[in-house]
Design a protein that fits this description.
By secondary structure, the protein is α/β, with parallel strands linked by helices. The N and C termini lie far apart (about 30 Å). It contains six helices and six strands. It has a single domain, classed as 3-Layer(aba) Sandwich (Rossmann fold). α2 runs parallel beside α3 and α3 runs parallel beside α4. The chain is about 40% helix and about 15% strand.
Length: about 170
């Protein structure tokens, strides 16, 4: 699939940050299949380096990462004016209320529990991009999503999934 849309506009660019190689590859390949441009990072330090150089539209951030966890990487991204506007979707295997609140405080724009179905992750990315671009159906403005890290809604959306992505049997 082309990296440009129908009218010559570049497809949204997503940075997938995941330390587990199979999950990183699965998310990346499905996002490419869905028309996104994709880069990958294996840990929080790589995520920062790539975010500063590549400037993605969205970062899918696993929160449990080696070297620097996703919590700290997100805080650093959202506190830097060069990257504060990048949408960050927290990916975690923990759906506890404390994790959701911690992700919101760190600056995450959305919270998705793993395992998640790839279609639902793509839908969440598109939803956030629509809100950012002023095309969201929930009335949230792009300004509210991108101006300051503190402008993240008080309730971070949770996309929770109970079906496994893979069936090993």
């Amino acid at each position: 699939m082309s990296s440009e849309g129908l009218q010559g506009v570049a497809s949204p660019f997503v940075l997938v940050v995941e330390d587990y190689p199979d999950a990183r590859e699965m998310y990346s390949e499905y996002l490419r299949f869905s028309g996104f441009r994709v880069a990958e990072a294996r840990n929080g330090e790589e995520a920062l380096e790539k975010a500063f150089t590549l400037r993605p539209d969205v970062i899918l951030m696993d929160l449990a990462l080696p070297l620097m966890d996703g919590w700290e990487a997100t805080r650093r991204l959202k506190s830097d004016p060069r990257t504060a506007q990048i949408l960050v979707v927290a990916l975690t295997g923990h759906a506890l209320a404390g994790h959701q609140e911690g992700a919101r405080r760190a600056g995450c724009d959305s919270f998705v529990t793993k395992p998640c179905l790839p279609d639902e992750l793509v839908d969440e990315i598109r939803r956030l991009l629509a809100i950012r671009d002023g095309n969201g159906s929930n009335g949230a403005s792009a300004q509210a999503m991108t101006s300051e890290p503190t402008a993240v809604p008080a309730t971070v959306p949770i996309v929770s999934h109970t079906k496994p992505v893979f069936n090993p049997s």
